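Researcher: Good morning. I'm working through a list of sequences from a screen, and I'd like to move beyond sequence-only analysis. For each chain I'm collecting a predicted structure so we can compare shapes side by side. This is the next one on the list. No need for commentary yet; just the structure.
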Amino acid sequence: LEKDPENERAGNLKEKVEGRIQEVRRLRRVADEQYDAGEFTRAAEEYQRLIELSPGDEDLLLRAEEAATKRDQLEAALTRAQSELNRNRYDAADAAADKALALAPNNSRAKGIKKDAERNRSAVAKHLDEASRLIDSELFDDATRELEKAESKGAGSDERVKELRQAAEDGRQALLKSDATRSLVLEDFGAALEKYEQILEKRPQDPD
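Model: Good morning. Structure tokens for this chain:
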């Protein structure tokens, strides 16, 4: 039976339309999945591809705009979180990372920033604990080095750092005075003078 050319063209057109519909549905499903997963950059790109296929779809236009907005908000939060982490401001880094996670709960960058902040915060605490132990053992120079390590990780404004640094300095000065007194008793005046000069170098107004 000879085919009707008109019916054949209609059949081809139908197949083409149906194929386009299937492709649009597939791309929409992929775009929605990426959006729901917090992959806003990729979702925005997929929605733009869909808009090219369905230029008059208002829902797609709205969805693409929402994806682009959330993409920008996420990137801003991540940039802020990384910047605060680099400045050793761990609470601020956590807060910015939490904003990112509120938008994209599975975002690996935000989780990594929070993990780094917690690791550095823990390291600071260990340095301070070690400094305190060394002060109790009258190892004041070693204690000062531990405090410097803590400060290098952002603990400079921590009240405990100030207290421990003062305790280390007080202990160092007390030890120098004790050594100076011992030198005087032994009549080692040169050594005693050297110790007193070290004391006055740090505390010119020391009444003792």
